Amino acid sequence: MNRVLSLTGRRLLATAGALAMAVAGMVTLSASPASAHSQAEAIAAACGSGYGIVSDGTRAVTTPSGTVYGYVHLAYNSSNGNNCVVTRKTSYHGTPTRTRAQIGVQQANGSIVTYDDAGDFSHYANVIRFASGRCVTYFGWIWSTPTGGNGTLASGGRTTLGNCG
Questions:
Q1: CATH 2.60.40.2420 given to domain 39-162
Q2: Which of 37, 64, 81, 95 could make a disulfide contact with 42, Cβ separation 3.0–4.6 Å?
Q3: By percentage, how much of the chain surpasses pLDDT 70?
């Protein structure tokens, strides 16, 4: 009988040990919220290599009350003449919420054509356009909810033409 209890006891201990290890593994795998990408990480991931932030190329994306939800960056690649706009989330980072990046490129006739990337993104929205020798505007938006929600909107950027060249 002691042998049976001893065997049963060992099985219970082994089962309890396995359960404890499984619980510990779940706790270990439960990651803390993702930290926001740095400016350099976001530019490299969204635009690719060879891009650098231009003069006056970073603006806060804020709510009407002044809460910062992220930043919008304008970067340029001199080897191919492309501009890249990245709206980088610092609030709601890792959570899909409506996020939008826009670049406006001045045309030869003086008009401005805008190009956008918008969707329910977890980290950033980005748009790349050739604009060598042209002036540009850039703007970004971050909502606190996915598309169709009634969340708070944050916006920021530059609506005046600049970075001509």
A1: yes
A2: 37
A3: 78
